[in-house]
Write the structure tokens for this entry.
Amino acid sequence: MPRGGTSPASSICLPCASECRSVSSASNATAQEDASADRTYQFLVKRKEVIVGRVNLGGVTRPYFNKASLGYRIGERFAGDGYATKAVELVLSKARDDFDLRRIEATVGPENQASSRVLTRNGFAVYGTARRSMKLHGTLIRKYKGRVLPHL
């Protein structure tokens, strides 16, 4: 559970030249309920009050594992500007410092090189490949899985 009385509605803001890149908790009722119940934490990635993406820590498993699954999405017109890398970095910090999570897992398809780079830049290492993990539109999709190194 969150340590130090951290509110699920807290936010992080990083000043960058003439803009602000921030990650703030999603504010709808379901997101707040999930955060209060320590199930899922949802964050919005913003640039000058414009939502450019989101990051989620879902499937929180306690008490023994203290782990969650990481998911993120950045709007197409904001891709390649470093938002995903920085947002994941900030959320991993919150996962460790505020939510006492010790293992974060992420799944990425082999065709998604940009997302693979985001995970690598944030200390993830590939630990396995699922050869037949899901069917999408009748096609079997292979997924790579990674996890945060023990420093988290």
In short: The chain has one domain: 11-148. Residues 11-148 form a domain with the Aminopeptidase fold (CATH 3.40.630.30). Confidence is low (pLDDT under 50) at residues 1-21, 147-151.
